[in-house]
Amino acid sequence: MVGGPDAFARMWAAVLTETGYVAMDRRGLVEQMREYTEVLLAGLRSDRFAPEPVERVGAGLVGMRLAGPETLRASLLLIGADLLRVTGAGELRAELLPAVQGAFAAGFATAMQEKIFRDQETIRRAALEARRGAEVALLASENRFRAMFNQAAVGIAIGDADGTLLEVNTALADMLGYQVDELRGMNVDDLRFPDEPAAMRRPFDEVSSGARDHYRMERLLRRADGKPLWTDVTVSLVRTETGEPQYLVGMIEDITDRHLLEERLRHQANHDPLTGLGNRARFTERLTTAFGCDDDTRVGVCYLDLDGFKVINDSLGHDIGDELLVAVAARLDRLVTAPGRIVARMGGDEFVVLVERSSGRAELVDLADRILAALAEPFPIGGHRLAVSASIGLVERSVVDATPAETMRDADVTLYWAKADGKNRWAAYDPDRNAREVARFTLSARMPAAVESEEFYVDYQPIVRLSDGHLIGVEALVRWAHPEFGRLGPDQFIGLAEETGLIVPLGRWVLREATRQARRWHDAYGDRAPMVSVNLAARQTEEPTLVADVATIIKAANVPPSTIQLELTESAIMSTTGGPLRTLRDLADLGIRIAIDDFGTGYSNLAYLRHLPVHAIKLAGSFMEGLRDSPTADPADAQIVTTLVALSHALGHVVIAEGVEDPEQADRLREFGCDSAQGWLFAKPGRPEEIERWLEK
After folding, report:
1. pLDDT for residue 160 is more than 50
2. Res 1: pLDDT
3. N or C: which end of the chain has fewer CB within 10 A?
């Protein structure tokens, strides 16, 4: 049923009329409840809940003299059961409902306690006036006191300075389950709950000795039947004319219902409503406490995420997914929960296990293995047998080595490692690996600005004709002059550039620099200027503007297209079909040379190779080791090189060998008919000035 705030206000007014006397007409009461309803709804709409307005609503009922426990109980039930349903406001945040109930109860209780305290003061003053007045005045005052004493809704007790009860009212006797006569003569110690901490008695001792005049605290008392009774106790001291302690006046309010409500709200705030496990707040509290232990204490954290849970949710529905989460939580709880351990749900399909006072990494590894084994057993859910695995990140360390926040950050990192390594496994925190990951992230974040600020530069490695040792070309190799990490080779950042897509602007920049250098050499050396070979990533061939960009760059540099060679790896060029293949042909039509890099390391389709617009083949450097005259040389390498050279020449391609490091390798390549070579035997990659010194020899 949906009726809006007015309907809820009418329901609330009816409940109040049933549970207490309302000193206003029906219309006025409904209007007042309508204002209070709007305050509750405002709290449920807020992004950051503020309890004070709702507390004032609870206090307002006490101010209307609606202060009975039945009024509080009925109002809380109505707010919890009917507020969202009756008002029907879609923007309300249901998760804030316990907080609204708690704030309402707190405001009601606070106002009630203040009222009781005022009543107590009235009683105490009446007692003093009765003692000091004349006999007639004393009698009148005592009559007034007795009427108030007996008719008060809260428990009242008067005792001597030693705590022996002299007078109690009916409300207190009913509260404790005794007759009034049974309580007279008892000592307050007889009402204490067993095993009460000694610190709870200290305020009473201070008042009875005269060290203080009053105190107020929550106490757990024992009823006549032995059951616990939560109370709010206020004790005041009445002194003699000389200032010595004479009487103790106590006001006792039964707050058992409020205490149970607070306990329920506290449980809801610290436990996951779906699985019943502790939630993120509960886990964080335990983790922080564990880090507050002695310096020699160690803690362990297992952070796990279910593999493939989204597939189950999407294919079978969220109801099945929720049932699976409940079943997983129950299995983990049975397996893990023990003294010094807690398992919590962090949200979604993520769970975390805390091992307080860990004995070492082996304990965490054993626990992770047992968790993986336990989850491997299928779960019977909704007529299905669902299999699920988990990826687990492990962190085990001394409490002095990190903070709770750093520990959870590292656990999250290791969880990511476990997923990246193949899932259904655990990964332990490794500071060296983490440092490498941080460095990779740092490079990735820096790279866009580095391209713009020209932190990159190009080195050139000579390509030499084997027949006469003449320099015929150079390979352009990009380097990064990082302001923090120093000089970085391409193996340290090209992979990152490809992952982030920055390989496209970076490759465009390298080609522009290489063509400008080719122009300078062409102007200085004419026909003796070397061909410049530039690496082209597979990702670049997918760019629709690649051909136009290359044509623009070559035109701007004003170099003959035939002096530029673009290199693609064998695996990249052999997978080019459709658009990428047309791109290669368009580049070849511009007059640019195309070369296959690292040839022989992939699985080439030779029939396809003969139709590609390729001009040169670059043999992978891994074959060069077999061309050495040494016992470890593999004779199969020589046969492979011979075959590849013959095949390439049959297809009309020039052959360039990479990674040539000694004269023996060069002699064998020359013997096999290889056209050109590059490697440390001839020169390492260097600045353009080194190439110019070569040309000037």
Report:
1. yes
2. 46
3. C
